[in-house]
Specification:
alpha/beta; D-Maltodextrin-Binding Protein, domain 2; six-stranded mixed β-sheet; about 20% strand
């Protein structure tokens, strides 16, 4: 029973930590044509929720992963949506003619390759993924 107390204290601290404490699980990457080096979480949300198609005067297009830990972490940390609700949101925009479905790719490596080779592309990958050919945007 004595060993249970430290475990409960740790769990309590983790539960009370703000969401930024876990923000290191994904990194946001961009094609070198994107003029900014950092992005606010609000601007990041606007790009991925198709409210904005520019950053610092550069035209941008979001690139998402189909599934996986980086995808789940990105949705939770930056969009505040589940995968199902995000897909429903995108479908409603497409159905009403307000937007086109963004690009969904199957892996971190596929996102890195696409972003590196597509002008204006902005995506996300696991924090430990090599991102050669792209630039990492600091999220503020």
């Amino acid at each position: 029973m004595k060993n249970l107390k430290p475990i409960l204290m740790i769990l309590t601290v983790l539960a009370l930590m703000p969401k930024w404490a876990f923000a290191g699980s994904v990194k946001v990457i961009a094609n070198s044509s994107v003029s900014v080096n950092s992005i606010s979480s609000g601007d990041l949300q606007a790009v991925f929720l198709l409210d904005s198609d520019s950053l610092g005067g550069s035209h941008v297009v979001p690139v998402l992963e189909k599934s996986g830990p980086a995808h789940e972490a990105f949705l939770k940390e930056y969009l505040g949506k589940s995968d199902e609700s995000l897909l429903a949101f995108y479908r409603s925009l497409v159905f009403t003619g307000k937007a086109e479905m963004p690009k969904f790719l199957g892996s971190d490596a596929a996102v890195v390759a696409y972003v590196a080779n597509t002008k204006g592309a902005v995506g996300y990958v696991s924090a430990d993924t090599p991102t050669s050919g792209t630039k990492t945007l600091e999220v503020r």
